[in-house]
Input
Amino acid sequence: MAAPELRSGCVYLVGAGPGDPGLLSARALELIAGADTILYDRLIPPSALDGARADAELLYVGKEGGGASVPQERTEALLVERARAGASVVRLKGGDPFVFGRGGEEALTLRAAGVPFEIVPGVTAAIGASAYAGIPLTHRGIASAVALITGHEDPAKDETALDWAALAAFPGTLVLYMGVRRLPEIAAALIAAGRPGAEPAAVVEAGTLPTQRSVVATLATLAETVRREEIRAPSITIIGPVAAFADELSWLEPRPLAGRSVAVTRARAQSSELARRLRVLGAQVREAPVIRVNELPGPPLDPTPYDLICLTSPNGVAALFSRLAAGGRDARSLAPARIAAIGPGTARALADRGINADVVPERFVAEGLVEALAAVPVERALVARASEGRDVLPDALRARGAHVDVLALYETLAEPLTDDALAAARDADYVTFTSSSTVRFFLQAAGGEARLAQHTRIVSIGPVTSEALREHGLAPDVEAERHDIDGMIAALLADAAP
Ligand code: SAH
Output
């Protein structure tokens, strides 16, 4: 069946559902497939735009995790402008457009501007997440009403729009959107207003998405549970006796690393992202940081003589900026040079400081960077790295006739492991090594002998780390094809797959 023509000059306010692309409505798919212009938010399902026309104009108007966002007025102005220019416009929002989606405001603006519109409902987060978590929002004899509430307001503020006493007295299930960070205050306000602290309560993170997680506790213990489990936005909170059904009615397949323990040996400061992502996949993470990163003191850096600056780790980026700052300089002083990053993690650390790396190789090892730099002219290069780095890159650049300065910006030092942490790592299902220094220092912390359990599988981030493992008599069971955290997680998932 051919998609019906969309009306030109009409705006479609479309709910895209909570995240599972399968929950996009037939009408939403048809409109996405036909629209001239689509303005979309951050929380739409990952593949929602796959069916858009190749020549459709796709405009992102979402917020970045509470940070910079396209102002609402600008979004509304764009809707009116594009519609008046004769386009068929889809305004695609996560969940339902009329549930905490500012759909009402947008419709009012369109009406005032005389622009015709149509509203397409979507599965709102409360409905989607509760269904996927096995929590019936109403239940005969247990809950006969549901309240959808924004947790955005601060209960400590006097001018809060929410009447916590009335909400505490509400005879039914409370569902809070947003505000997962405010849970301690919200729970305290509800309990102070008379809601029983022992009432079951649940938080569902990333409901209906592959990374969905939920925790069930009581109103009194929920905030602490959420903190411990590192639950993040987007999450909804469900308060009421129905939350207790989550255990009995859960039906989602277990997450891919559920029941597996994974030891993380990298420095504590760097391990958090890896550890968090492993937890999201269901793994039980055993933190065993064997290294610590120590920035080396040194004179302020003047980068102006260099036409190429190579960074080989996110730590190097942080330390480079410290050395620039020591001389009163900032990112602008790097403008004359080309910047090369060894991999995406390093490129991201640069991007966080406003620098787009000019060169990022396809293979994230020094040899890959050498290849990627083959066509880049270089006279004077700076290789900024750890004190004990490999010489592959400086040697290769020198062999091409470049003048190369190697600047040791930081060192990795041994971090002693507690006996418990060492025992937990030795017995984990997987132990991960993200650099040759993690291998060296793990052995040192283990008193020279790895003594891993029979079932423990060794995961290496790439060939250089694998070589270090073999030198210590440890054969890697899994080696990442992509030598970064994403690649390591992919390799681990492939290995753990049944
Ligand atoms: N219009 C949307 C809500 C937008 S407000 C809807 O109808 O669902 C954004 C909030 O929605 C988030 O802070 C979170 O509380 C909730 N949310 C959106 N998607 C979610 C998801 N997949 N899982 C859990 N909560 C979600």
Q: What stands out?
A: The pocket of S-adenosyl-L-homocysteine is lined by residues 18-19, 43, 93-96, 99-101, 124-125, 129, 177-178, 204, 206-209, 233-236 (CB under 6 Å).
